[in-house]
Design brief:
About 35% of the residues lie in helices and about 15% in strands. It has two domains: about 300 residues, Jelly Rolls; about 140 residues, no CATH class. Helix 11 packs antiparallel against helix 12 and helix 11 packs across helix 13. By secondary structure, it is of the alpha+beta class. It is globular. A hairpin with a 5-residue loop joins strand 3 and strand 4. The protein starts with a helix and ends with a helix. The strands form three sheets. The chain has a seven-stranded mixed sheet with strand order 1-2-11-8-13-6-5, with no helix packed on it. It is built from 18 helices and 13 strands. It binds 2-oxoglutaric acid (AKG) and fe (ii) ion.
């Protein structure tokens, strides 16, 4: 007879990936465990600064990393900024988590209609300890902080990130922006760019995370290693790190050698170029800063506990503004109104950018223009497969189409994609999950060059809405 936790987790897994019959078919927890464990060795291209917060002022951080859009690993923040959760025996202790929030439901996935799949944390902890899944379920929960003083009160936004300009539109209206992460080893997040041009910080309290980052301008096809995925391979983070990335690395190396051979007579040194990809391991107590526009993927090497937030500061404001004015048209109007009072210089920047790009805000459109935009949007909706609530990004877009599409980092200009207001309810689900939805659409013959081209623009909006499908919300939210 199965135990309650086993039944609850089975139900959750079925909802999250209904078509997956065998969650351990790739044998990453058994036959291929060494392939996974090899990721614990030092990466080959670790071009990233690692610096203690004790020797990095906020001003230095802005000048050296935030303004030039360069990632960095900052250590010791939880300790120096006195996070309760960072103390031994708190977030790093599953017994503590079970005791404090064991009865609470945490989001571990999303069903095909976009509804959250939740389980009690104490059940999830049993699963985490015993599962042999290739790519286990991952707690990626944005609600826990509001509802839960225990978690909310035990960390603080690091002092390097004092600005949070989306807070001006109010907690209810703003896109979700903070997540508590509890990831069994082998779970992870597929390659993506964070939404709306926002930057992010991610602090690990327990366990190690393996990262790969690609600078803005890298094509989606390269970052996602689309040319290196074999037929029938799964598209989870573990498959990416264990199988696709080594193939991509090899291909990049080959290309570099070729380039080098061709230009060996040239005097230009490649040592000051931005590297093609950055790989590193993040250890407990370390905070990764991910600037907007960088592709990244993450794999939990151990059972890990972390917190992450996305933000808009005065430094990345313009980039975020250009995404938001078209991705969240109505919210952008309210945002601009609020900025005019509290941050007039930024509001002027936004208005200047609008003028320069001949961008018309939603509130300045005539009724006729609004109607025609809505109509166009509806028509594009109709083209989609019924039930597909999210316009997906994909690891299965044919490489030729994906290559032809502009990359998300260059999509700042008025990207009035029909789908930019539709988002899954978390940035995490969207990755592999959304790719599967894309597959579904493609199978139904709905794939077009246009939808492929816009998919990454959607992707850039992944966390930009915490709305779930409204009807049946209560009923559909799993209460296990
Ligand atoms: O820690 C992770 O799994 C990755 C988090 C991430 O990239 C994100 O939340 O956007
Ligand atoms: Fe991210």
């Amino acid at each position: 007879m199965k135990k309650t936790w086993e039944r609850r987790l089975e139900e959750a897994k079925k909802k999250h990936r209904p078509k997956l019959k065998d969650w351990s078919k790739d044998a990453f927890a058994t036959r291929r465990t060494t392939d996974f464990e090899e990721l614990s060795s030092a990466p080959s291209s670790c071009f990233i600064d690692r610096i203690s917060c004790r020797s990095l002022s906020t001003q230095d951080f802005v000048e050296r990393y935030e303004r030039p859009c360069l990632p960095v690993i900052i250590s010791d923040i939880p300790q120096e900024e006195c996070w309760e959760g960072g103390k031994p025996g708190c977030w790093d202790s599953f017994a503590w988590l079970k005791d404090k929030v064991g009865e609470r439901l945490f989001k571990v996935g999303e069903d095909d209609d976009g509804y959250k799949v939740k389980v009690k944390l104490r059940y999830f902890l049993r699963y985490l300890a015993q599962n042999t899944d290739d790519s286990p379920l991952y707690v990626f929960d944005s609600g826990s902080f509001e509802e839960d003083k225990v978690l909310m009160g035990t960390y603080a936004v690091p002092s390097y990130f004092p600005d949070d300009l989306f807070s001006l539109v109010g907690e209810k209206r703003r896109p979700p922006y903070k997540w508590f992460l509890l990831g069994p080893k082998r779970s992870g997040t597929c390659v993506h760019i964070d939404p709306l041009g926002t930057s992010a910080w991610n602090t690990v309290i327990r366990g190690r995370k393996r990262w790969v980052l690609f600078p803005p301008g890298t094509s989606k096809s390269v970052a996602k290693a689309l040319d290196h995925i074999k037929k029938g391979e799964d598209d989870e983070a573990i498959n990416y790190f264990v199988d696709f990335l080594p193939r991509l690395r090899q291909e990049m190396k080959r290309q570099q050698q070729q380039k080098h051979a061709e230009s060996s007579s040239s005097s230009s040194s490649s040592s000051d170029e931005i590297p093609q990809m950055i790989e590193f391991t993040q250890y407990p107590g370390e905070t990764v800063f991910v600037p907007g526009g960088w592709w990244h993927a993450v794999l939990n090497l151990d059972d890990s506990v972390a917190v992450t937030q996305n933000f808009c500061s005065s430094t990345n404001f313009l980039k975020v503004w250009k995404h938001t004015r078209s991705g969240r048209k109505k919210m952008a109007c309210k945002w601009l109104r609020k900025l005019k009072t509290s941050h007039p210089a930024l509001a002027r920047q936004a208005e200047e950018a609008n003028r320069a790009d001949a961008f018309t805000m939603w509130s300045d459109l005539t009724e006729e223009e609004k109607r025609s935009k809505k109509k166009k949007k509806k028509e594009e909706e109709k083209k989609k497969v019924p039930g597909a609530t999210a316009q997906p990004t994909s690891t299965v877009v044919p490489a030729t189409i994906a290559k032809a599409s502009t990359d998300a980092s260059s999509s700042h200009s008025a990207t009035s994609t029909s789908n930019s207001n539709e988002r899954p309810s978390s940035k995490h689900d969207s990755h592999a999950k959304v790719a599967r939805k894309e597959k579904k659409r493609k199978l139904a013959g709905q794939e077009t060059a246009e939808s492929a081209a816009s998919s990454h623009i959607f992707e850039a909006n992944i966390v930009s809405c915490n709305e779930e499908p409204k009807k049946k919300k209560k009923k559909k939210e799993a209460t296990n």
